[in-house]
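Async update (no meeting this week)

Hi team, since we skipped the sync, here's where things stand on the single-chain job. The sequence we agreed to prioritize is pasted below, unchanged from the tracker. I ran it this morning and attached the output directly underneath so nobody has to dig for it. Comments welcome in thread, and please keep replies under the output.
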Amino acid sequence: METDPPASRPARRGGTGREGPGPGLDGLAEVADRIRGAVESVIEGKPSAVRLALTVLLAEGHLLIEDVPGVGKTMLAKALARSVDCSVRRVQFTPDLLPSDITGVSAYNQELREFEFKPGPVFANIVVGDEINRASPKTQSALLECMEERQVTVDGTTYGLEPPFMVISTQNPVEMEGTYALPEAQRDRFTARISMGYPDPAAELEMLDTHGEASPLDRLAPVAHAADVRDLIAVVRGQHVSPAVRQYAIDLVTATRSHPELRLGASPRATLQLVRAARAYAALDDRDYVVPDDVQELAVPVLAHRLLPTAEAQVERRRPEQVVADLVKRLPVPSPRK
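Output:
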């Protein structure tokens, strides 16, 4: 099966100076490198996590950052948000948070003698939701409409959200007291889930030097505008995905639905988001076409958080990440044209 780009789309990698498919991809590489550099100046030793976060932004998706306390989840979310000159709102999720605290509320204006809408923090380009699993499922569900449809409905009136729109949420998987598990529908709306992991000793030493006097976030200035991100998203939408790569993504997602160790597989939304993320991942690699390697690299972060293991798999301590990794190894990969 054919996976390489058509003859009219010359491949570009690494800024070789050759004529590319157009100025859009060149501009994407420049702006993306600025954003990535700004975030990595704050988050030491986590280039893969930074790249995945940027991939989700360009794929018009939402990011769930899950890990133990103190490894920089909120720092990554704030750094990505501050590196782009756009509207940013932060929501600290707590058990007493109400849906209207997120979406907004209609309040009666006594001077005008009419109700007027007061927008909530969701009316921003980037919404940082800290410790999302500390809010009740009812409050968490307030994000369902805006994450999927880019709009908010309050009292029968629908308000559109200005692009780009991205929700970056954090949660601690091991701190279960006072937390609520994310509903399946909520998890499915997150394009990818990443874990920060502990930094290596060298990165931790550099962190001590960097964070000694003040937070590096205080020195972080925007390096791109919201209009730049919108332009980059338009470039990503035009990335070429061959029929063979599309079928490979479908086969990978379909395999999760009949896997004996899973009681809930990935939805068709997962297929769409996997391909969208692969487009962005390829663009960050300075290519205007997607290859199977892009799908493989993103399979675990895009699919694993949507899956529910069976009771037997839980007893055997088999995690969804392991299941997806096994599927990536087992499924045949489309071979490029000779």
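Quick observations from my side:
The chain has one domain: 23-330.
Confidence is low (pLDDT under 50) at residues 1-23.
Reply here if anything looks off.
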